[in-house]
Fold this protein.
Amino acid sequence: MDRRQQKTRKAIFSALSNLLEQKRFECITVQEIIDEADIGRSTFYAHFETKDDLLKEMCTDIFHHIFAERLPQEADSDHMEGSANLELKLGHILYHLKENKCNLKGILEGESGELFLYFLKGYLCDLFIRYKDDFPCDIPEDFLLHHLAASFSEAVKWWMREDTRHSPEEVAAYYMAMIRTQNRK
Amino acid sequence: MDRRQQKTRKAIFSALSNLLEQKRFECITVQEIIDEADIGRSTFYAHFETKDDLLKEMCTDIFHHIFAERLPQEADSDHMEGSANLELKLGHILYHLKENKCNLKGILEGESGELFLYFLKGYLCDLFIRYKDDFPCDIPEDFLLHHLAASFSEAVKWWMREDTRHSPEEVAAYYMAMIRTQNRK
DNA sequence: AAATTACAGAACATAGTGTTCTTTATCATA
DNA sequence: TATGATAAAGAACACTATGTTCTGTAATTT
């Protein structure tokens, strides 16, 4: 990939990032992104088909970076009990999300919230399924998985709105306390 | 209020309702609403400032109808235990939402999802707070309330996506099973 | 029956989107 | 370092959607 392309791509991502600190995605125009990135109009459309396309690619980059590159390198904790392992990994996710806070603020609400949920489910699916045995067996599995993932996603949104005043570990602990059910088999 | 106004307002709501069965809100244009409602352009803007304004008013109407008119008329169950009472009321909400399914499909995801959450929180706040004693006290109260309300909201979305194949009672029971925590005081 | 009010329809200004073109600058590489 | 290839700048453009304004007509209220 040409240096110029990389530079432009970075400039566009960075511009959107900056703008997202001021206003929500829907209220940002392509022109503003172009001005902020200091590039030509045709250049933008040479890189991305639409504004939505840009958001999707940027989010994919961020989430892929977190879920596929950062998290797997961290200490494996498969020896732990399912619950403790889950809490640890959720804490790690929150830690990495905090690093990208400027990017994520105002993103998680919209369409890319679904994208986050998708990555989250993919990454945690096996853990959630292992943890599933702690829940009553008459709950449909897809409901359980959706509930666990979506609840965590909502916890993240709450945390972002609170300006991440609590530590990642705290939030992970709150979440675990909430989903630690009474009906153990 | 003039009969003509009421008629037009109804026609616009109905038009949006119909269109929402085919596509998501963001993809619907004002022109399509106008054509579907068979009214003049100026008439639309005499009633609503913007398309978002229309959505907001329509959702407010629906949710107000459910939360302020229908639900309070139903059998009071204050004598029940907090948990059973909550499950019953959640079931009622789901029942009334099902009646408006055509309207709500594709709505709850967007901005009006927040509106739903607002009504939900308002209606259930005292119940949730009463139920709060079942949770560990070291969880921040606003986290707890947000988690309970948002989780329920997510359960509704799941249910809508599943084309409401499960009964309201079932979904309410699933939800209650998920939030029935282990850590009773 | 008269005054008021809502509606239809058309025309308009405005703003944002996405495309196309030419010229200029930068890159890879032989 | 000369050269062919490629990316970017910038302007012009067509197109779509939004929201406003106006006039004449029809319905409603009193």
The CA atoms of residues 24 and 106 of chain B lie 6 Å apart. The mean pLDDT of chain B is 90.
